[in-house]
Amino acid sequence: MKCLSFPTKLSVFLFQRDSSESNDKTRKANYKTNDASRLSLDVVIRKIPVIKANFFFQDFEWELFGQPLPVKQKNAYLHMVIEYTIMRRDPSIKAGILDLKRKGHKTESAFCKVLEIPGDPYDALIEYGKVEGII
Predict the structure, then answer these.
(1) Partner of 64 for a Cys bridge, out of 25, 31, 53, 95, CB 3.0 to 4.6 A?
(2) What pTM value is reported for the model?
(3) Nearby residues of 50 by Cβ (< 8 Å), 6 or more positions away
(4) What is the pLDDT of residues 85-113, one digit of tens each?
């Protein structure tokens, strides 16, 4: 087991899961250190188990997100590839995306709003990347 400590006093434990009952109980806990820091161990997103740690550091919100998938199959990686390609194709949309992010939008939501892509921004951006031949 490894432990990572963050300035918010949030500790993230990285461990290999086994099927024992005691590990299952530990895995299902959500650890909240304060209003701005949270470790979630029993999260399933799009049918894939994940581990998430959310915290603020130097006035910036961070989210550590792990899935049992190779990096190039993870949606977060695919989103970055798609967003990078979109920005290279049309740099003029950067100001609009940054404005929405300053107003609290997540990156995927900001891209979809600027590009007028309807639906769930996480799924829609992946679909857009497929249709546009980016991924």
Answers:
(1) 53
(2) 0.66
(3) 40, 43, 44, 65, 66, 67
(4) 999 999 999 999 999 999 999 999 999 99
The residue extents of the domains of the chain are 2-66, 71-131
Give the tens place of pLDDT for each residue, 8-40.
Answer: 444 444 444 444 444 444 444 444 455 567 777
Rounded to whole angstroms, how far apart are CA atoms 87 and 42?
35
Of 4, 130, 28, nearest to 75 by C-alpha is: 130
Neighbours of 16 (CB within 10 A): 6
